[in-house]
C-alpha cells in the first residue's frame, strides 16, 4: 500500500479515484470538483494499492489554527487493514506540521466505526445537532 497526499486538488487520475470511491462509500453521492475548489487549504490524503485507490481522507482549513477533517472512506474490499487509521495519522501529522492547533470532524451515529476510530485517536465529543436533512450529527475535536 502506498500512502501519499496532495495540497489542493490532486491530478486527474487520483481525483477520479476519489470521486469513484466517494460514490462507493457514501451510497452513490457525487463529489463535485466545484465543491473541492472552494475549500481553503484543501488536503487530500490517499492510499493506493497498485493503481487502485483504496482509501482517501479530505480536509481543509476552517479558521485560524483550526482544520476540518471533512470526508474519508476506505473501499469495502480493503476494510479491516488499518488504512483509515494510517490515513488519519498521516492527515494529523501534516496538519500539525502546518501549524494547526485543533482538528475537528463531524460524524454520524450510523457510521460507528468512524466514531470509534475518532475517539481512539483522541477526539472528544463537543456538541451534537440535527442537520437540515434531519440527521443527528456529532461534532468531535482534538487538540494537536
TrEMBL record:
GO terms for molecular function: acyltransferase activity, transferring groups other than amino-acyl groups. It comes from the Bacteria. Residues 1-144 form the N-acetyltransferase domain. InterPro entries: Acyl_CoA_acyltransferase, GNAT_dom. Coiled coil: none annotated. CDD domains: NAT_SF (cd04301). This is N-acetyltransferase domain-containing protein. It comes from Viridibacillus arenosi FSL R5-213.
Amino acid at each position: 500500500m502506498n500512502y501519499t497526499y496532495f495540497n489542493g486538488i490532486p491530478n486527474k487520475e487520483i481525483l477520479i479515484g476519489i470521486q469513484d470511491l466517494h460514490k462507493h462509500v457514501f451510497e452513490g453521492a457525487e463529489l463535485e470538483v466545484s465543491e473541492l475548489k472552494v475549500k481553503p487549504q484543501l488536503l487530500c490524503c490517499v492510499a493506493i494499492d497498485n493503481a487502485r485507490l483504496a482509501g482517501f481522507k479530505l480536509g481543509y482549513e476552517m479558521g485560524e489554527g483550526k482544520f476540518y477533517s471533512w470526508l474519508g472512506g476506505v473501499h469495502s474490499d480493503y476494510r479491516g487493514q488499518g488504512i483509515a487509521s494510517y490515513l488519519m495519522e498521516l492527515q494529523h501529522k501534516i496538519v500539525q506540521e502546518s501549524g494547526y492547533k485543533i482538528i475537528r470532524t463531524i460524524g454520524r451515529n450510523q457510521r460507528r466505526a468512524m466514531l470509534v476510530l475518532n475517539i481512539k485517536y483522541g477526539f472528544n465529543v463537543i456538541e451534537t445537532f440535527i442537520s437540515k436533512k434531519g440527521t443527528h450529527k456529532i461534532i468531535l475535536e482534538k487538540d494537536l
